[in-house]
Amino acid sequence: MSFNLNDLVEATGLEKIAAMERAVNAVYTNDETKRKFQLLARAVFKKYKAIMPDTILNLYAPRKNAIDVIYTAIEDNIESADVSAIMREIQGVVDESIENMVAEPSHDKGKIIDLSGLNFELLEQHFLKSKNKNAVVQSLKDIIEKQLKQMVERNPLRVDYYKRYQEIIAVYNLGKDAVTIEATFKKLIDYMNSISAEEAETKREELTEEQKAVFDILRKPTLTEADKKRVKEIAIDLLEELKKEKLKVDQVWEKNETSAAVFNTVSNILNAKLPYPTYQIDDVDLKTNLVYDHLRNQYYGGGRSIYEDY
Fold first, then answer.
1. 20 to 30 Å CA-CA from 23: which of 96, 135, 198, 300?
2. Per residue in 38-70, pLDDT tens?
3. Could you read off the pLDDT of 200-210 as tens digits, one per residue?
4. What contacts 76, CB < 8 A, 6 or more positions away?
5. Which residues, other chains included, contact 227 with Cβ-Cβ below 8 Å and sequence gap of 6+?
6. Distance between CA atoms of 232 and 226, rounded to whole angstroms?
């Protein structure tokens, strides 16, 4: 897919918006074309600055400015009102329902993506009508990558979702034709549905996200309903006990005494409460270490965690 930079340089009014859409769509052919454009654009900016204030730059300013606008759009670092208007047109390809995907953050961790607000049917309708399908796919990729980062950080057992996403993108980056682009879009929609289902399961289990993370670590593939209920209660009680005092200690992981206290609490509770014979001694030891590693990664001491302060 190609784009002539002169189309953007010479365009005016609404034609400039259309040219910008085509330019961004060309850059978004795949991840490699995007990276290559970013590298080459930065090289142009560096050389342009090195020559300033030579008047010969007047000959190249329109082209440099056009590259600058595309680069700014790609980096999503919009400053001027004109570029903002252009980008509103471009980013609108994912339709207004994306505005409903962002829930208010409880802390300064950034906005939390909530895929339950995405209208998949409307999104697909817009994709099929769009002339710039690469841009739509890229918008979906950006949303999914933000969601994935949040999901894996908050529950490491969700890493399989990341692997599946990487497989989809690997195939996309190999292909350039319309069939590949449309197939990728459909796979991403299915993928987003699976993420949405994971979010729904957390709500269905009546667990918070941090409780669900511990529950996922503790549970085994096949549990009776009674054992599942018991394990769920253990996950809730364990977190509640640790957050009373032990995880409120400043620099909890830097001190042998306090980190050992956390480990011992996990070990004692799991040994006492995980249902036997479903959980054998080796199972309990493994789960103890996995939960402890999870706590070290997600809880910072001083009553702070990746989830919320407590």
1. 96
2. 899 888 888 888 887 778 877 888 888 888 878
3. 777 777 888 89
4. 87
5. 275, 278
6. 10
